[in-house]
Design goal:
mainly beta, Methylamine Dehydrogenase, Chain H, Immunoglobulin-like, 4 domains, six-stranded mixed β-sheet, 1 helix, disordered N terminus
């Protein structure tokens, strides 16, 4: 027989049972093909060990095989005080004393290998191996065929309610009858191309457990959609619903749970996801699962729930990484139970200036492209819960790479004369992480006087220069990976700090310094009809230029400048004199 061959092949691989949250019950054995709950009692069908009974909520199971001529039992169903057992090769047995004794009930049954039963009101329906369907309206005393019309006889599942009977075939057909099989309607529609192994009727909704996942129709079978997101095993042997809890047993992947009609599934296997779950049932307190080799396990219904949604853990690029490419893949950890993810990339840490954004992502990565050169970006990811809540991750940032640029030399300016010691000043260079300054006696820099180590600042004080000497200087920008870029070369002449007549080269002063929005320029030892005052920022750009009257010693300079350091240059004829201004 077809099913006997399948069972023999499946028996070669039986994974070990080790659920931590599921309780392993005692007394049952074999392949548990079905479990039924009725009036506070439990019944189980075992392929290999017959029928079992429990009135302790599954804590212990007792064999009830007296009168059964085979231990190959596929299904057990109950109507009132009458229990039915479907067997392979021996037909259907009936018991009216909780299974203590069984008697055959095969009158009118066209085939004695019965693999599934379904009850509705006081009617019972039987699915056979190769002879289709039969029904009884008198508790199994007589059976009649339901095989009229166009119905595939190789069937795999059955379900019923009121006067409706649904059967699923091994070829993906779903049939429905409302008149005991006199006419059948084929509800196959859309993607159903695999074996229908379980049928769940839920008002207008129909759920199908198939060998390729779970399918749902919300319009009585007219249209179908796959609802399998989150499943890691798509071979569904059994599917049940308890309130809003949808539970699926898989053929090798254990048990899965959904509370939104299958939109999202999560495993409820804890440490062992490799179970072959053949059947599912429930009572008012527990869910029961029949396994392929370890009997029956149970778990409290109240313990089955979605975990508290946590924020994702950002993975790459790592926080505060620099020199990143202009096209990046952002990655984060998977969070169990999420509906989707929401990623944001911004130009500020408060996410007021969003650069890229994507919601309802099903993956744990996002490609962001078109990033600008040498720019700081901030990113975060939210877990979207099933009730539309967003749980945000922490904020990470990265900086894109840049083409390393040369520094602009600010002070001393070219061809100037400056007193020693000399305070060298240059602008920040894009892409630079540090700088080296070189001072030489020749413009080929073979006779180096200063060759500094790498320094993070944009200024350097030289105390070892001689008086009245022509010097050449340049700055080397150092980028990531020790890349370098040299500035232009400037020339200056060193002057002594004092002269023989005692006059001081400190020819002008600035106060207050630091200053906020104005400062006093006091000219002390210089004589000229006119002076030119220039103020430079760290990029070497002139931000203020003003002509000063020569016979006036004190000048008030008003300004609106950002906080920072500025170089002040006073031109007197062909000479230049420099000071540093701090704006706070």
């Amino acid at each position: 027989m077809i099913r006997s061959l399948k069972i023999a092949l499946m028996a070669f691989f039986i994974p070990v049972l080790a659920f931590s949250a599921w309780e392993l019950t005692e007394g049952s054995s074999g392949e548990i093909k079905s479990i039924t709950s009725a009036a506070g009692k439990l019944y189980a069908a075992s392929y290999g060990s017959g029928a079992f009974f429990s009135q302790t909520k599954g804590v212990t199971w007792i064999p009830i095989n007296t009168g059964l001529e085979t231990n190959l039992v596929w299904d057990v169903k109950v109507i009132g005080n009458t229990i039915f057992s479907a067997t392979e090769g021996k037909g259907i047995y009936v018991s009216t004393n909780s299974g203590l004794n069984w008697s055959k009930s095969n009158d009118g049954l066209g085939h004695f290998s019965v693999f599934a039963l379904s009850t509705s009101n006081n009617n019972i329906f039987a699915m056979t191996d190769e002879s289709g369907l039969f029904y009884s309206t008198n508790l199994g005393k007589n059976w009649a065929t339901m095989n009229n019309g166009d119905i595939n006889l190789i069937l795999a599942s059955i379900a019923s309610r009121n006067n409706e009977v649904y059967v699923g075939s091994e070829f993906g057909n779903l049939y429905k009858t409302t008149n005991f099989g006199q006419n059948w309607e084929n509800l196959k529609s859309g993607p159903l191309i695999s074996t229908i192994k379980s049928i769940l009727l839920d008002n207008e909704k129909i759920f199908l457990g198939t060998s390729s996942g779970v399918y749902l129709s919300v319009d009585g079978g007219k249209n179908w959609a796959s609802v399998s997101q989150g499943l890691t095993n798509f071979d569904i042997n059994s599917i049940i619903k308890i309130g809003d809890k949808l539970i699926a047993g898989t053929n090798g992947g254990g048990i899965f749970f959904s509370n939104n009609d299958g939109k999202i599934w999560i495993e409820i296997n804890e440490e062992n996801p490799d179970y072959k779950i053949l059947s599912l049932a429930f009572d008012d307190e527990y869910v029961y699962a029949g396994t392929s080799n370890s009997g029956i396990i149970r778990r409290k219904i109240t313990d089955i729930k979605f975990p508290e949604i946590k924020p994702p853990q950002l993975l790459t690029p790592e926080n505060k990484q620099t020199n990143q490419e202009y096209d990046l893949v952002l990655r984060w950890s998977n969070v169990p139970g999420v509906a989707s993810y929401h990623v944001q990339v911004a130009l500020d840490p408060n996410f007021n200036n969003i650069f890229r954004e994507k919601d309802q992502l099903q993956n744990t990565f996002y490609n962001v492209n078109g990033l600008s050169e040498y720019t700081d970006y901030y990113w975060r990811v939210a877990s979207n819960s099933l009730d539309n809540q967003k749980i945000w991750s922490e904020v990470w940032n990265f900086r894109t790479k840049v083409v390393l640029q040369a520094a602009n030399l600010i002070f001393p300016v070219d061809q100037s004369s400056v007193p020693i010691p000399v305070n060298f000043l240059w602008s920040q260079a894009k892409g630079a992480v540090s700088y080296k300054i070189q001072v030489a006696l020749d413009n080929s820099f073979e006779e180096l006087v200063i060759n500094s180590a790498a320094i993070p600042d944009t200024f350097y004080k030289a105390t070892n220069l001689s008086e009245n000497v022509d010097y050449f200087w340049k700055v080397i920008s150092i980028g990531p990976g020790e890349s370098t870029q040299e500035s232009v070369i400037r020339k200056f002449k060193s002057l002594p700090t004092s002269v023989e007549d005692g006059s001081i080269i400190n020819t002008f002063s600035i106060f207050p310094n630091p200053a906020s929005n104005s400062a006093n320029i006091v000219i002390e030892e210089l004589n000229s009809d006119n002076f030119i005052l220039e103020i430079y920022n760290l990029l070497g750009e002139i931000v203020i230029q003003k002509q000063l009257i020569g016979d006036q010693k004190k000048h008030v300079i008003n300004f609106e400048l950002p906080q920072g350091f500025y170089s002040v240059r006073l031109l007197c004829g062909k000479n230049s004199y420099f000071r540093t201004l701090v704006v706070n």
